[in-house]
Every structure is written in structure tokens, then in C-alpha cells.
Amino acid sequence: MPKTDHRVTLTPTKVTGLKPAAKGERYQVMDAVVAGFGVRVTENSKTYILRLRYPGGGASASRREIGKCGHLDLADAREKARQWRALVEKGIDPADQERRDREAEILQRKTTFGAVVQDFIDDKLSTERKGAESEREIRRDLLPAWEALPITEITDLQISALIKAKGRKKNVAKSKGSGGKVGARNLLALIKRFFRWAVAQPEYGLKVSPAANLTATAILGDMPPSAARTLSDDELFALWRAASRMPYPVGAIYRMLCLTALRLNEVADASRDEIKARDGIWVIPAARMKGKNGGKKQARPHAVPLTKDILAVIEDLPKFKGGKFLFSTTAGKTPVWVGSKYKQRLDARMLRTLKALAKVRGEDPKHVALPPFVNHDIRRTVRSQLSRLKVTEEAREAVLAHVRPGIKGTYDHHDYLDEKREALELWAARLMTIAEPKPDNVIPLRTRA
């Protein structure tokens, strides 16, 4: 048995001053403040201990280590001893309680918003056409606010406050999702979707979504009137001129948008293996098209006829040895992300051209403005121009990859390839008369655009 001194009131100085025990021996100095608490000293170490009759340990008292004196100060050791005594009085073994606490801590780390949302990104978003865009929103808007919070502690009040703040944020770029009411509504939809997914995974312990009863209208009010519009012929001229002068890859992307009426990411994420030059088509797989894997809005592959104008843009693109993506800033390894800064540069170039046109016509360029438009308005403009060219409704809808409604859409899988080719060739001819008029119709623009 180790030598036991009389009880003394331990102090940090006394603990520090305890001399090492002789080789092969040990002794204890017991505390007069907390019963059973003390310091066990050997030739190489000092350890805080607590002697008690622990649950399941029989009738005699036993000694357990609380912590090394060099790793735990005296006040914390005493407090831990008091907590252990309180647990023993309730019939709880401190070792069992500490194990449960460690497991709870590990579980809590696994169920923080940051951990769970990473699972959501890996399991769901990584396989989706717009998954990268959603992930950017999560990392930009949600992680800074909630990353360390347990998933079960996020409340509807926190969500509402975040969405209101997002709605008040000035949307400088006028781009989808960057701010304002539109961006806030999109973010709320993403939050609701995430929590629905988390509720369906029982391991996270979330029984009810905190966003279940939140609505965008209640939080943000009614949506502002739609600013959707089509571009005028002057604006199309300015757009094509600006896109032709913007450097790769963005300039080429905007020219492709004008020629194909595709959505931005359908063009920007294009890869070499989608181009079937021998067949004269570009096949965009269903995974990159708007829609879902099932349900009413099912995504389908979309074939784009390779007209001479579309081919001219593709053939002028750089060819990368190690990468497959057509529009890239990483030598084809990843597709380019066309953010708001590129749209702002495009708008600035277009406005310079419109001012130059006004000056040539004898008008005051100071009064010229470019009304805001979004990239999707290019697609809307092409659709309207196809109507003007008397292209059939079926061909117009096929060009835009719109699935026909009802039973026709379900059973009619005719791809309208010839009709789409004819429509796009008609539109390209019309676009060239606007964007690259014949010499006798050219208005000389001296102003740099």
C-alpha cells in the first residue's frame, strides 16, 4: 500500500513542491477540501486521484486517476472530483458517463450543419447538373452563419433572418442568385430542400425541418414584376460585336448562345466528346439538360444541329491535349464558370457600341442606356425571332429543348433534327443581317467598342 499523508489543503504551490518518491516507491497526499481527492506521487509523475466506492466495484474503495498534474490545474481537478462524487451518489459510474459524453460529442461533430451539408453536397449535389452552383451558394451564404451549429439547433427564426438579410442585399450584378429578392427566394428553396433531405436521413436525428412552414412570400413579400425581355436589333448588333471582341472563352460562349438558344451552362460545360462531327450534331446528355431523373420534368438528351456558323465557332476554339472541355481556363480540365463579372464586361462593351450607333445617327449618346437584361433573355430573343421567321411551333420548341406537354411529350420522341437545323440556319442568316450587315448597309463606327 502506498504511504498516505494526513489530509492537507492542497494549493498549486504545494502540488508543485511535492518531491518525487524514492525509486520503486509512491505516496499520496490527500486533500482536506474534497473527500477522497488527492495527489499520487511516484519517482516520475504526479497524478490527481479520487478514492471512492465506485458502482459495481464492491464494498471497498478504489483509486482512479483524474488527470496528470502537468495537464490539469488544481481547480479543474477538484471540480472534476466533485462531479465524479455527484455521479457516484446517483449510482452512475463516471467512466460510463465520460464514455457517453465522448460519444455524444463525436455524434454532435458529425451532425453539425457543416458536416451534414457536406454529406448533402457529396451524396446529392455532386451528381446534379446545377450541383456546383448550389454548392457555391451553400459555401457563400450558409456555412459562414451555421457551420458549427448542430443541425437540430437551427431554427426557423435563424433561417428567416438570413433570408431577409439576403433579400435586402443589393443585387449589383443583376445576376440570378447573387442577391436581392430573387437570390433570397432561390436560397430559401435550397435550404428547404436540404432540410427535407436531412429529415429523411435518420442518423442526423432531425425529426422536423425548421424551414417546413416558411414561405418566400411571407418572408420577402411579393416578387417584383418580371424584367424578362427580348433584345432589339441594335442590341443584338451590339451583343454580337461585343462577343466577337471579348477574349476566349467568354466571347465564344456568348456567340454560341446567340446561335443555339441554349441555356448558359449547356454551352459553358460543353465537352469535345459531345461533338459528333461526322453526324453533324452536338449531343448534350440528359444529365446536363434541365429536368429531373424522373417525374413530369424528365431530362432528355438534346441534339443541336451543327450549322456552319456553330461549327465556325467550335473550329476556332483552342484544342487542349489533356482536357476535354471546350470552354475552359484550365486547359480543358474543367469548364469555365461564367460569373457576373463577365456579364458586366459584356454590358459595358454593348453600351459603348450603342452610344456609337446613336452618335452616327446624329443623336446624343448621353441619352443612350442599355436596359438591364439577363443571359436567359438571349434565349428568349431567339425564340421570338424564330416566330418572326414563321418557324413552326414544334420546331421552335424543339430548338429550345422544351418537352411537349401531355401525351405528345410522353410518346412523341421524334427529335425534329431536320426541322431544328432549318430553323437554326434561318435564324443564323437573320442574325448575320443584323450583326454583320452587307457593306452598303454598314454604319461606320469609329468609337472603340
Give your account of this protein's structure:
The chain is of the alpha+beta class and 449 residues long. Helices cover 46% and strands 8% of the residues. It has helices at residues 12-17, 74-89, 94-110, 113-123, 131-146, 156-168, 180-199, 216-220, 233-245, 250-260, 264-268, 308-315, 340-360, 376-388, 393-399, 406-411, 417-435, and strands at residues 3-4, 27-30, 37-41, 46-52, 62-68, 275-276, 281-284, 302-305. A 5-stranded mixed β-sheet has the order 1-2-3-4-5. A 3-stranded antiparallel β-sheet has the order 6-7-8. Mean pLDDT is 87; it is low at 172-177 and 406-413.
Sequence-ordered SSE layout with sheet pairings:
Blueprint: E1 3-4, H1 12-17, E2 27-30, E3 37-41, E4 46-52, E5 62-68, H2 74-89, H3 94-110, H4 113-123, H5 131-146, H6 156-168, H7 180-199, H8 216-220, H9 233-245, H10 250-260, H11 264-268, E6 275-276, E7 281-284, E8 302-305, H12 308-315, H13 340-360, H14 376-388, H15 393-399, H16 406-411, H17 417-435
Parallel strand pairs: 1-2
Antiparallel strand pairs: 2-3, 3-4, 4-5, 6-7, 7-8
